[in-house]
Here is the input.
Amino acid sequence: METPPALLPKELISATAIAARIRELGAEISRDYAGKPLTVIAIANGAIIFTADLIRAIDLPLQLDSIMLASYGTQTASSGEVVSRSKLKLELSGRHVLVVDEILDSGHTLMKVFELLKQEKPIDVKFCVLLNKQERRRADIRADYVGFEIPDHFVVGYGLDYHEYCRNVPYVGVMQE
Ligand code: 5GP
Ligand code: MG
Here is the structure.
């Protein structure tokens, strides 16, 4: 059992900056999906907080579902082995799907999600991530909506965990030694 970190993370992106960027993303998504049947899928647990804020910035009727995945590897690097740990509740055929994740790193997670969702025959699948670490990309995947480009730092807060802690920190930051 890990003990909670002694220090709060050092702020990288403030709660105010996150909220402002989410309003912009919400407006852009609202324009792009106007009149289309939209299903938002959150990748739990990390994307729960971002998704909760993002969908309230989308001014359209939409359905919400979530999927839980397990990615093997170390705390800071994905091995590329990603397995699904839950099933979707909603039907995706005839729907436009927007997958929401908190961070796009190697891309293995979103690649796996794409393969899983394709089998459900949605009209299309797009990706929205709060954070993009472009230099870490391994899988051939790109996000359609990106909140912030960030350098290769291990970040926490706003849904991102440090040994399952820090998800409730309201900003994105880096751990202090
Ligand atoms: P990927 O499969 O693209 O390598 O990354 C998938 C998952 O790894 C993310 O959804 C997130 O849960 C975790 N992850 C990647 N980078 C970071 C990071 O900097 N901090 C934390 N806390 N998790 C990360
Ligand atoms: Mg995640």
The pocket of magnesium ion (ligand 2) is lined by residues 43, 46, 101-102 (CB under 6 Å). Residues 72 and 81 are 6 Å apart (CA to CA). The radius of gyration is 16 Å.
